[in-house]
Amino acid sequence: MSESLIVEEITKVFPRTKRPALDKVSISLGDGEIMALVGESGSGKTTLLRIIAGLEQPDSGKVTIGGEIVFGAESKTLLPEERNIGFVFQDYALFPHLNVEKNILYGLHKIARKAERYKRAAYIINLAGLEGLEKRFPHELSGGQQQRVALARALAPKPNFILLDEPFSNLDPVRKETLRDELRTIVKESGISALIVTHDTRDALVVADTLAVLKEGRLQQVGSPERVYFHSTNEYTASLFGKVNRIPCQLLEGENAPSGVSEILVRPADLEITKDSSGDGHIVGKVVSSNFRGDFHEVTLECSTGPSETDSVTNVTIYVGPERSLQLGDTVTVKRSSRSNS
Amino acid sequence: MIGVGQNINRNRLSTSWWWISAVLISLVLIAPLSVIAKSLISEPGEGWELISELLLADYIRGTLIMIIGVGALTLIFGVGSAWVVTVWEFPGKKFFSLTLMLPMAIPTYVMAYGYSFIKYDVRDPLMIWIREHWGPEVMSQSTEIFNHFLAILVLSFALYPYVYIAARIGFAEISGAYIENSRLLGRGLLRSMFSVGIPLARPAIVGGLLLALLEVVNEYGAMTYYGIETLTTGIFVSWTDLGDKDSAIRLAGVAMVVVFIIIVVERALRGRAKYHAHRASYGNLSGPTKTAIGSFIAFTLCAILLLLSFVIPLLKLTLNAFYGWREIDLWGLVSGPLSDSLLISGIACGVIIVSALIVTYAKRLFPNILMKLLGKLCMLGYAVPGAVVAISVLIYFSDIGKLIGTSSNDISLTRIMFTMTPIGLIVAYAVRFMTPALAPIEAGMARVSSSMDEASALLGRSSWGGFFRVHLPLLRLPLLGALIVLFVDVLKELPLTLVLRPPNVETLATTCYGLIQKEERIADGSLPALILIIAGALGVLALHGLIRRRTVY
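The joint structure predicted for all components is written out below.
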């Protein structure tokens, strides 16, 4: 698989800030791949997107698009209009003075023959399911329709790849899931690779082939959704994608020789809870409170042999999958289920 | 007629003072303009036949040529420079973004005097050459054409900042995402100006153009300087040269029709939709566009425009004043026109600001249709050419004088208002310049929430207390802004002052016009012209600072 985008060691420091917005970030996007760039606000993900688009200038590093260096120490920096990439803005930025068809035709001016232009536009309109809306103006469209127009407009000029900046943040939460799947289908059908920036890890898990996690300008982990979710390389990534239980454990070195105390991180679904006090688990304790939180129960256990090994009673909060209901006063043993390992 | 205002102050006795004063002020400001409407219905006099047959077509043609020419050039200068300064990064960008507003400080007639070294008349070598080769007929025609071109150029230099400022605001309001998106779809910044920038900023640009065109219709000094006949110069010809009052008013009526058409066209061009950014842009529209050639072109374009529209005329006038230093009667200037100008402008500004405050506050206390209508009508005068305002005020008040009828001829209302004191002049300034005071005060007051008035009233303050303790302190910055614009506008107003000043009073504007244009004492007249420019430039800079401060807060 050849790469449509290679970003190498991009560093960017904004004036009057100490911490770099981006610190030696490298990613690559394969042909036809959908990658999600995940991070909290301020993590530098939008800055990276704007640097790839040419809307922002990095301090150092190299950006290669379709085999051509568009930014690099020894080559000429290409302007945004010379890079041939599609961009879907957070607020879609549909031109309010142009109708749907004209918006899509906007980027097709390089096709010399008018008939060819309209043919391509018609193909894209069909792909994005916008038939019948050609003459509508942006303000006459629903949020989901606007998103499809923005996507169609970005895909129309056959760009090297498309960039999407928080594409789901302006959508009605109820319709979001359908639109999310729709977007993935359209992009996959067009065969054009995409880089999606989002802070919503669920969107990222559903839409992307590959995830890249960014924190404070540093790349944390790159990998398939399953790998990043279940085999997070660090605590930040693990907690970003959902509740995790921190379970204290002893590190063993060689032949059962204790070498230090650490914590393991376990997803709520991976906790095995049994109603006995055999002591063969990580935590044994009495349930003192249990609160339903939607995706999980927040359960507080009173442990007599807590992690600190003191005589005093310690309260430990664990997150348990939603299907379990624990009675107050039960004494339970918590273990990590055998199918996961991290 | 108190109306059905929903304000809790409504039932207090002290509040009726506000609406009574507001209605009275509005009447004084609006009533004179009725003279023009009346004249259009009444039977025409003998002089009108002459004028309508021989001159009217020329007047209208001259006005239209100037409107079209100046309109096109101000659009090119204003929109072009605004786009360059908005989207490109180049050395001197900040400097140009400020200084390109400065030509607004040069009154149009002063701009013409600044270019006094180019003017085509029978003495011009080129014209003499044309006469020798093609005869006097061709010469007089080419003189006319050349002077039209010059006048269009000179007026455009003075008036493009209206379009420039409007376009800057318009471009700034466009979400940066639109322009970025246009670039990402493969269109460069120049093409994006036509496909995204201008369509989206059109309402703002057309608004700026409207102001520039109204100034063209208003223009008197520069037009007579280049010998161009327009409706405004026609009003002066029939008023002062022919002494034909009736025809002057009829011409004023025609001028108003032209103004009306301009406003209607503006409304139509503005379009139904106002495109506003629904989300703040990323602050700066300009991406990394630092190519050496691009920067050089951008710099050169801005520099040429600034040079032609500000530096050259300023330099020329300074040199005139410098070389003719001995001819200048400095003391005469300071004790006469300068102090008169400052005094009259100061009083006029005070009167206008106080009236605007009363009208605006009354409208706030009684938010009914009548008050809103009066507020709108008070703004009408700004669209009316100065010469038209002048003769309608003059005729209106002499008619009232006749109605009152005094036994002694020495102290008639007309004499008191227009000959013995500058009261008539100040009233006319108020009729014409209410808008620059009303607009910022209204905007400023609108930002104070109505719960403030309610809180003030509940704390036991009357409407007066609310006005002095709440609104006036909060309006400090808008008031200062209004005062600056107003002062500069009044100071440089020429045609209105020429008609209405008492015989013994000269302002800077009339001195400058009289010395340079009538007596051709260029060195002498350059000093008052320079003072006008400096006052204007300080005003523009102060206003810019104010606007920036207000956006910071």
